[in-house]
Structure formats: structure tokens, C-alpha cells
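Annotated sample (chain length 113).
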Amino acid sequence: MRIKLKQIAGARSGDKGKHSNVGIYFFDEPVYQWAKKTISTKFIKNHFSEIVKGDIIRYELDNILSLNFILKDSLGGGGSETLINDAQGKTHAQAALLLDLDIPKELESYVKS
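Output written by the structure step:
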């Protein structure tokens, strides 16, 4: 089944200097366990390929069913670097929630409309 990430998770994001982070929290434990195997740094890098110029680091937060991604060099110098460059990471969560995923049949009952 093809879904959007927002059907199984929520997200928050922010920025610091020229980097941003995207935290993805999953609504259900089985979906989180699947996501840990599926949503890799390579997968996120591909989704954000036009803005992320550096590496991506992933942290697993098992106690809160979350993955946190640090998107290095994703703000073109930083949110407050210049008046011309007003990039901010707070919109990156919304962009992440639009990710297309193929969820396995055994997890379809966890998908929200």
C-alpha cells in the first residue's frame, strides 16, 4: 500500500546555523520498528536532495518511537545569515511528512486516513 508518511507519523523540525533537523515520531510501536529498518539517511537524503548539501545523521529514540535526522548544510548558510538568504528549517517537517512510502500489508491497519 502506497501512503504518505503523515498517515503513520508526525514531525517537528528546526534550524541551527546552516543545519536543520527533522524529528519524526510514530504513532504505533510496530510501525516505528518497521520505520527504523526502512527510513534511512539515504532515503531522507534523496527526498531532500535539492536542499541538503552535506551529510545526514540519524538518531533513534526508541523510548519515544522517534527518529531524528540532522540535515547538514541544508539552509544555504543559515536562517539569519543574510537578509537575502532567509532559509529556515521549520518547514522541513512538513516536507518530510509528504514522503511516499510503501507500507507492508501487515501494517496497513495502522494507517490513518
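Annotation: The longest strand covers residues 9-16.
Annotation: The chain has a mean pLDDT of 90.
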